[in-house]
Design a protein that fits this description.
six-stranded mixed beta sheet, 3 domains, 15 helices, alpha/beta, Rossmann fold, 412 residues
């Protein structure tokens, strides 16, 4: 869901915001009146809304209130930021405010994108004061974040272990059982700075406190006297940092065309997994797949069509494998899977089902329907090494292709 509601009486301003957000990849609906917005909200789901503070026929700020009544994160659109406006905004549980100026385009796209990305992002608030936890929770929920709470470091550790997808922790310093400094050191021993952001939100004013936390691995330090605006800016900056790191990692480890993991990452992931499963006496299977006669697809329909086939086949394969293993593109039309979620005695059936699925699969490209088949080689023999398993699976793939293609062969 990427729909945005723009509630703005000025057609010129609404068009400017709409074009800005469409360039960022969002679908926009526009209402120029309060009543029009009510109708759109009744008929659609919006992950965020932008509303002018002034609308014809209703009181000042009622557009924002309408969005909040329907639990739509709200961004205020205003022509000025005088004291009257700022006082009114401070009493609204809004995500943020933007000015009706062309130079605000980049920030508008950024804050809307932030709310969109925040859907499902978990943040943990750690403080021995329930009122502080609730205050920070309300602030962060404005941004669409999923907020968890803990009353001290020990409680936080329990929450963290049952929610491994937490992206950001905001912690107090002085707490019973385990204080914020010890918690920071503990969390940092589990997750690195490019995987988890830790922000300290403390009332401690000693000059040494912030450096102590930063040396233990905290990403940021904020005084509890900071404004809501500052807290939100720091939170957003830390989340954006994590996303930039993840994007950089993806560029290094993912295939640019299909979005699957690349050959390099396959070995980085597969080698430790192989060693871990060998030590634990558990099973691992390696599979190599090759799209049959792929050169013919390129020669007949063109390389753009071939690229589309690769992308859609990759999506089909990744969706089919799911959490049972890791799928990578080894190169060209060849793909590799390391499976740790499929027992060896179920491997043939698992792969045969996918082969049949591909047989009935087609790709439409510029009015033409392209069908393909796939040859599959696999092994569940873990006697030597991951490299040896790949070689065995490759031998079976070669055998499958040499004996007619569109079949599954496995080395036990």
């Amino acid at each position: 869901m990427s729909q945005v509601l723009i509630l703005e009486p000025s057609k010129a301003t609404a068009l400017f915001i709409q074009i800005t957000l469409q360039k960022a990849g969002f679908d926009c609906d526009h209402a120029s009146t309060y009543e029009g917005a009510q109708e759109l909200i009744a008929a659609n789901d919006y992950f965020v809304g932008l509303s002018s503070m002034v609308l014809d026929g209703v009181d000042y700020g009622m557009g924002i209130d309408l969005l909040l009544e329907h639990r739509i994160p709200a961004i205020a659109v205003t022509a000025s930021l005088d004291d009257h406006v700022l006082r009114a905004l401070s009493n609204k549980n809004i995500v943020d405010y933007v000015l009706k100026k062309p130079d605000q385009a980049e920030y508008i796209a950024r804050i809307v994108s932030r709310v969109y990305k925040n859907q499902g992002v978990k943040v943990l608030i750690v403080d021995d004061s329930a009122s502080v936890r609730d205050w920070v929770t309300r602030i962060l929920k404005r941004q669409g974040l999923t907020v968890l709470q803990a009353e001290d470091g020990v409680d936080a550790t329990k929450v963290f272990y049952t929610n491994s997808d937490i992206k950001l922790v905001l912690t107090d310093y002085n707490m019973p059982e385990m204080d914020g400094l010890r918690l920071t050191a503990h969390l940092r021993s589990i997750r690195s700075m490019d995987e988890l952001s830790i922000i300290v939100l403390s009332s401690d004013t000693k000059s040494r406190t912030a450096p102590l936390f930063l040396k233990q691995g905290a990403n940021d330090f904020i005084q509890k006297t900071a404004s809501i605006e500052e807290i939100l800016c720091r939170v957003n900056s830390n989340l954006e940092f994590l996303e930039l790191i993840q994007a950089s990692r993806d560029r290094a480890n993912k295939d640019f065309l299909t979005g699957l993991w690349n050959r390099r990452y396959f070995f980085e992931y597969g080698e430790p997994l192989y060693e871990q499963l060998i030590l634990g006496g558990r099973e691992l299977c390696v599979v190599i797949l090759d799209i049959d006669h792929f050169k013919k697809v390129n020669d007949t329909y063109g390389h753009d069509a071939g690229d589309e086939v690769l992308k859609e086949f990759s999506a089909l394969l990744a969706d089919y494998v799911g959490d049972a293993g890791l799928v990578s593109r080894f190169g060209g039309e060849e793909f590799t899977i390391v499976l740790d979620g499929v027992p060896a005695d179920e491997l043939i059936d698992f792969l045969e089902e996918f082969r049949v699925l591909v047989e009935g699969f087609s790709v439409e490209f510029k009015g033409q329907v392209i069908t393909i088949t796939v040859s599959i080689g696999a092994t569940a023999n873990m006697d030597e090494s991951l490299t040896a398993m790949i070689s065995r699976a490759d031998d079976k793939l070669y055998e499958a292709k040499g004996s007619g293609r569109n079949k599954v062969l496995c080395d036990w």
